[in-house]
Structures are given as C-alpha cells and as structure tokens.
Amino acid sequence: MATNPPQLFLLADHIKLSLLERQRAISLNLSPNSQDAQISRSLEQLRSGIESLESQVEDTADESITSQLPRLNSQLTDLTAQFARANTTTPSPTVTKPNDPSLATDFAAAQKKRPTNKSVRFTDNPSAATQDEDPNRASLFPYRDDPDPDAAPDHSSLDNQQIHEFHSQVIRDQDDQLDQLGASIGRQRELSMQIGDELDGQVVLLDDVEEGVDRHTAQFRRARGRLDRFSRKARENWSLSIIVVLIIILVLLIIITK
C-alpha cells in the first residue's frame, strides 16, 4: 500500500482508469462488475494510505504532506461516490483528469467511444471483388456459396444408401472432433479459473502484507518521533543542569575568596 503522496496520487489514477473502463462497459451494455472487487480494494488502500499520512503528520509535522492531504481526501470522496453510482455512464471531472500528465494518453483511450455503426460491403460479383485483395485470403476463407464441383467427392458410383452412410460417417467424425475440441476448451477454462482464483488469493495476501508493513512503519515513525522529542528535552535539561552547577561553583568561589 502507498505511504507517500505521489504513490497515493498514482493509485488514484489507476482507480480512475478502472472506473472509466467500467463506465465504458456500461455504455456498451456489457457486464460492468468484473473489476468491482479490485476497485473496492484499491479504494480501501487509498483510504488506509491517507489515514497513515494523517497519523504521520500528527507526530511529525511535514508541510509537503499536509499540503497534499486535502486534495487526496477530495479525490477519495469523489472516486468513492462515482463507484457507488453503479449505473451511471457520465464520469465526474475528477475521474477524467489524471494526476500524472504522462497518463493522459491512457485516459483519452479509456474515454474513447467504441463505434456502434457498422457497414458491410456487398457486391454482385464476388470474384471481381476479391481480385484486388490479399492473395492469402483464399487460403484463409476457402468456403464459398458456390463450391467448385471438381473439389467435391465423386458419388457417381454410389447408390443412395451408400451416399447416406458416407455423409452420416462425415457427420459423426465432425461430432467427435467437436466433442474433443469442447473437452479441450473445458479443460482450458477450468485451468484459467484456477489460475484466476490463485491470483486473487495472492493479491489478498499481498494486500494484507502491505497493510501490516505500513502499520508497523507508522508505529515505528511515531516511536521515533517520541524518542526525538525525549532526546531534545534531555539535551535541554542537561544544559540547564550544567548552568546551575556553574552558578553554584561561582558562588562558592566568591564566598571562599572573601
């Protein structure tokens, strides 16, 4: 978790990008809930980071941190409110403006609307239309509405029953191939889901470790601040003690010399 203003501003920019992608999915009538858990965790990290900075400046004043806290709190409030408005497709001004100017291109891409109007070109002479196209197109798209009669199997020597059996066998072979393909896709899907679950678990563990490190770091800084204040007071008291001892010695010398 971030522990200084630049890191927190960068975290806020990543939250803004996630919110823009979420609103873009809503505008395209897609499911916007795929990143809700990650956005929620990022908002909690931002809130914890701001609280850590606030406790830090309470112990040791730091103007570079104090001056950034109002802006961070304002962005946290706006981002939380934007995330709570689940069905909105209009981003707030805070979401559309990055803190880091180098992310302006990413923000512009995230706000770009995907074109919804599609045009399909038709022609009455497909052979003439494909003459100017890539010569590899024929190998990529070998199927036609009017297939080449020379490429079809020769059924002239087969009767109707044999033709039926031949096509039935072709269909069974295709079904077997589709079953194998479906089983392979199912295994890949299960593997992907397991990898995703493992990654989510690792992210949660890393977040817990970061929170623990930040918590102990804040406690260490508070203890160090107390030690600095104690050391400063001890130095001041030692100086005062020396002055008192010198005054006593001076009075004794005055008394002795008289």
UniProtKB/TrEMBL annotation:
Residue numbers spanned by region Disordered: 109-157
An example molecular function term from Gene Ontology annotations: SNARE binding
InterPro entries (UniProt xref): Syntaxin, T_SNARE_dom
Regions that span the bilayer: 238-256
Biased composition (Polar residues): 117-130
Gene3D superfamilies: 1.20.5.110
Tagged with keyword Transport: yes
GO cellular component: endosome; SNARE complex
Keyword Cytoplasm listed: no
Locations listed in the record: Endomembrane system
Residues annotated as domain T-SNARE coiled-coil homology: 168-230
Swiss-Prot/TrEMBL keywords: Coiled coil, Membrane, Protein transport, Transmembrane, Transmembrane helix, Transport
A single GO BP: vesicle fusion
One family name in Pfam for this protein: SNARE
Protein name as annotated: SNARE complex subunit
Species this protein is from: Ophiobolus disseminans
